[in-house]
Structures are given as C-alpha cells and as structure tokens.
Amino acid sequence: MTQTPRVGLIGWRGMVGSVLMDRMTDSGDFDLIEPVFFSTSNAGGKAPRGDAPLADAYDLDTLKSCDAILTCQGGDYTKKVFADLRAQGWDGHWIDAASTLRMEKDALIVLDPVNRPQIDSALAAGNRNWIGGNCTVSCMMMGVGALFKAGLVEWMTTQTYQAASGGGAQHMRELLTQYGTLNAEVRDLLDDPKSAILEIDRKVLARQRAMLDSDESAQFGAVLGGSLIPWIDQDLGNGVSREEWKGMAETNKILGLGEDAIGVPGGEAIPIDGFCVRIGAMRCHSQALTFKLTRDVPLDEIEGMIASDNDWVKLVPNEKQATMEALTPVAVTGTLTIPVGRVRKLAMGPEYLGAFTVGDQLLWGAAEPLRRILRILIEG
Ligand SMILES: NC(=O)C1=CN([C@@H]2O[C@H](COP(=O)(O)OP(=O)(O)OC[C@H]3O[C@@H](n4cnc5c(N)ncnc54)[C@H](OP(=O)(O)O)[C@@H]3O)[C@@H](O)[C@H]2O)C=CC1
Ligand SMILES: N[C@@H](CC(=O)OP(=O)(O)O)C(=O)O
C-alpha cells in the first residue's frame, strides 16, 4: 500500500467497531493511516477523529478512493457494496468482520498468530479480501492452535458457552433486563432470609415463562436470564446450527486444509463438531474441547506446546483455585489473554485430551484480527 494509506472505516460506532477503534488508538494505528470515516445513517455528520465530515458509506466513488476498506458494519452492508465496488474495478484491500465472504475462494480468514504463513502466501498471490473469522473459532484457535499446527489433532469436539454479545448490543441489554426483572420479582423474598427457596424458584419460573413470546425476549426469541439456549445462528435443516457448521468449515480454512484452501491444495480436513450454546455471560465465549490426538503425547509436552504458541495464550494449572481465578469470562473480559486450562487426559485413553478455554469475543473474536491484518498490509 502507499506510504500513508487512505483507509475507509465503516461500522466504527457499532459494538465491534468501537472495540476496534479503541484498539487502533491504543496501538498507534491511526499514526500510520489517513482514516476516512463513513456512515450508513449520518453522512455529513461529525467524524470521531479529524475535521472531515462523515462520508456516505454507499457512495462508491468515495469508497473507491480508499486503498483499504475496513468494515464492521455487518453482512447486509457487505452484500450491498462489495460486489459493485469490485465490478467497478476497485482493487484495494477489503477487510471485513462479517461472515458473508468468509468461505469465498478468493477470501482469506485472518488470524495471523495462527495462519501468518497462509496470509503471506495469499498476499504474494495478490489476495485482496481479508475476512475476520467466527468469534468462537478464532478464540479457540488462539488457545489451542499449537495442537493443530503440530498435526496432533485427529478430531475435535466442542461444547461452547457463548456470551450474549455474539448476538449484538441489543442482546446484551435484553439479558441484563431479564436478570433485573427476575430479581425484582423475588426481591422481597430474597431480603427475608427465612423465605422458602422453592417459593422463590416457583416465582422466578413463572416470570421466565411469562417473558416467552413477549417483548422481553424479542432479541433472543427465548429466555436467557437464568436459562440457556442450545441453538445459535440459522437452522441448516440437517440438525446442525450454522454456528456449529462454522467450527469445522472455518477452522480447516484457517489452517489451509480441505477443499476451500486458498493457493496450495489443502490436506484432508480435520473433523470438528459439537454443540454451540448461548449462556448468560456478557462478552466472553468459553468452550470445553475434547481432542482425539493422532498419537499419545505426554501431558507436560502438550502443556508446553500450548503455552509457547503465541504471546496471548496463558496456560492455567488444572487446579480448582487457579481455574476459578483465571478461567472465567469475568477474568478475561476486556483483555487479549486467552487462558487454556482444565488440560488433562480423559478416561477414554491416552490419546484423548480435554481442555477448556475462554476468549473475549469482541477482541480476538472480532476486532483484533482485523486491526492486525491492516497493520500487516501497511508494514508488510
Ligand atoms: N457482535 C459480534 O459478536 C460480532 C459481530 N461481527 C460482525 O460485525 C457486525 C457488526 O456487529 P455489531 O458491532 O455488534 O453491530 P452494531 O449493531 O453494534 O453496529 C452496526 C451499525 O449499526 C449502526 N447503529 C445504529 N444505531 C446505533 C447505535 N445506537 N449505536 C451504535 N451503532 C448504531 C451503526 O452504523 P452507522 O454508524 O452507519 O449508522 C453501526 O456501525 C455484525 O453484523 C457481524 O457481521 C463479527 C464478529 C462478532
Ligand atoms: N455468531 C456469533 C457472533 C458472530 O457474529 O458470528 P459470525 O461473525 O460468524 O457471524 C455468536 O452469536 O456468538
């Protein structure tokens, strides 16, 4: 790219975009670019930095004047402008948080601590489309990518515990509102230490059921406060949710395995499957992982590989106190740390390994891989 590339930023005031803006500011990225701020709703309004007014995010001419476009605006926006921009000959770098283009053959899923070699090959081959991965997949790969890189994974199954933020800002609000409503319903009984717990339980359940099919559960379409939802994203019609499908599809694409690999033909895809579940956490996705290893490797070697894989992964000793302190959404939220704990061989045999990991789905799950690919494109 040019010395000080012109970078169009779309979606900067949304939830993912706001986290991205903070990270770009903290990392000094704005010193390296000429930012152009766009809006889908307020063209001409005040931009968050500089004097230039907000540009119209649907104005293809202004978009085309950018060396790179970084969007966190969502898939509908991508569908509206990306194809037209390319059709008009724009060959700048398109960096996108949305899933729309992820599985396209001419797009790379970016997670450079895991797939920097694939990024470098794609860059050399003239790739221009860089897409952030699914949050659950990216956080998982930041934690246990070492095992995949070492060819140690025969298959993996995931059981996820995904935060409300994965649905968006309104979902986070709805979760908290539901919790508040439930608390208010039984506050008097809670204040009385002699009240019967089953009476509290009965009132909570009645209030939860009253929330169903009301505005109080409009975002999730089910009650999440004091409950869980074992389905995330679309129903693919074959018993699999789209979130579950992404686990295998995206992990293998990130690794350059399987038929969707970019450039060099990929090796055989690694089977990955499991269940994705929405729980009442705010913005950290957690996952219990089970691996069938390709061979029996001593536990201390596995722990060493995980711990030394990248600057953000942190091995948590498989002990109660350390787990409760470091392996929870409360501990991880707002940080780039990816703790991996509960690492142990399972009762099924020495090739079966269990682990648990947590990641902030707005940081490594969304904003950070995008910020880092922009930096790679700028600095080479
Ligand atoms: N939420 C997540 O966990 C993840 C999301 N993504 C992707 O990122 C996309 C954006 O997600 P997310 O950031 O959650 O979406 P948001 O709904 O928070 O923001 C999207 C856009 O909505 C517009 N908007 C309208 N009202 C408001 C408001 N009150 N405050 C802020 N923005 C407002 C803004 O556009 P404008 O300024 O132009 O009006 C904003 O850029 C998703 O569609 C998805 O494709 C990817 C990974 C994870
Ligand atoms: N589907 C994720 C959030 C998300 O936006 O995922 P994707 O970027 O793959 O669409 C969740 O609900 O937790």
Task: Give the tags.
Rossmann fold; 6-stranded mixed β-sheet; binds NADPH dihydro-nicotinamide-adenine-dinucleotide phosphate; 380 residues; 3 domains; 7-stranded parallel β-sheet; binds aspartyl phosphate; alpha/beta; 12 helices; Dihydrodipicolinate Reductase, domain 2
Brief account:
It comes from Paracoccus jeotgali. The chain has helices at 15-26, 60-64, 75-87, 112-124, 135-149, 169-191, 197-211, 242-255, 299-307, 320-326, 329-332, 363-379, and strands at 6-10, 34-39, 55-56, 68-71, 93-96, 108-110, 129-132, 153-161, 272-275, 284-293, 313-315, 338-345, 352-360.
Q: How would the blueprint of this fold be written?
A:
Elements (H helix, E strand, L loop, with lengths): L5 E5 L4 H12 L7 E6 L15 E2 L3 H5 L3 E4 L3 H13 L5 E4 L11 E3 L1 H13 L4 E4 L2 H15 L3 E9 L7 H23 L5 H15 L30 H14 L16 E4 L8 E10 L5 H9 L5 E3 L4 H7 L2 H4 L5 E8 L6 E9 L2 H17 L1
Parallel strand pairs: 1-2, 1-4, 2-3, 4-5, 5-7, 6-7, 8-9, 11-12
Antiparallel strand pairs: 8-10, 10-13, 12-13
Helix pairs in contact: 1-12, 5-8, 6-7
This protein binds NADPH dihydro-nicotinamide-adenine-dinucleotide phosphate and aspartyl phosphate.
Aspartyl phosphate (PHD) binds next to helix 8.
